[in-house]
Specification:
By secondary structure, the chain is an alpha+beta fold. The radius of gyration is 32 Å and the shape is elongated.
Length: 201
């Protein structure tokens, strides 16, 4: 009787003392890799959605917005702001190029000069909005192009110009006419690169 009990206890003790089975290293490596892949995919999808609906990063090409913007400045473009409100005069915006021909670009950067209902005129090298001469602190020279207008903007139409007022340096509403809100991609909020030029627009 006692020998049986000893035998059972001995067996039970051996079972409790069995060494744990080693983990399979291959399985944990694959699991960790899969976690990284999921994280990267989710981050990429989020960035794509933000880029599509919320913001965009754009690079300035050309001279039409000098001296405010120069070639290769990088801009943070707010794409949702005009879904929550309406464009304002002096906003710097990115728009789809409404012009035609070989010089047509995908996008342009311009400043809103006139809002729906405004009357725009360029006369004697000065810009007039609703008959009042504008003090344009963002330019470095008077308008060098020929006189323009006057024209009165229709509902949902905006008049845009480049800050570069040297002759022939800006293709804008004096060339392709007023634009609609559907052609506006977003508002250029600030220059984020180069850091030495970091500033709000």
């Amino acid at each position: 009787m006692n020998s049986n009990n000893l035998s059972m206890e001995h067996v039970t003790s051996e079972e409790h003392n069995e060494p744990p089975k080693p983990e399979q290293p291959g399985k944990s490596w694959v699991s960790e890799l899969w976690d990284w892949v999921k994280t990267i995919v989710v981050a990429f999808v989020i960035m794509m959605l933000l880029n599509l609906f919320v913001f965009n990063l754009s690079m300035v090409k050309g001279q039409s917005m000098q001296p405010t913007l120069v070639e290769r400045d990088r801009l943070f473009v707010n794409k949702i702001v005009y879904h929550l409100g309406t464009p304002s005069r002096s906003d710097v915006i990115v728009l789809r190029d409404p012009s035609e021909g070989v010089e047509k670009k995908d996008f342009l950067v311009k400043r809103i000069i006139g809002l729906p209902g405004d009357t725009i005129e360029v006369k004697d090298h000065h810009l007039y909005v609703n008959g009042e001469q504008q003090a344009e602190t963002y330019t470095d020279i008077e308008v060098q192009d020929p006189d323009f207008g006057p024209i009165t903007l229709e509902p949902d139409h905006f008049f845009v110009m480049g800050d570069n007022r040297h002759e022939g340096k800006s293709k804008d509403s004096r060339v392709f006419g007023s634009i609609t809100s559907d052609e506006i991609v977003g508002k250029a909020e600030f220059i984020f690169w180069p850091f030495s030029e970091l500033k709000k627009l």
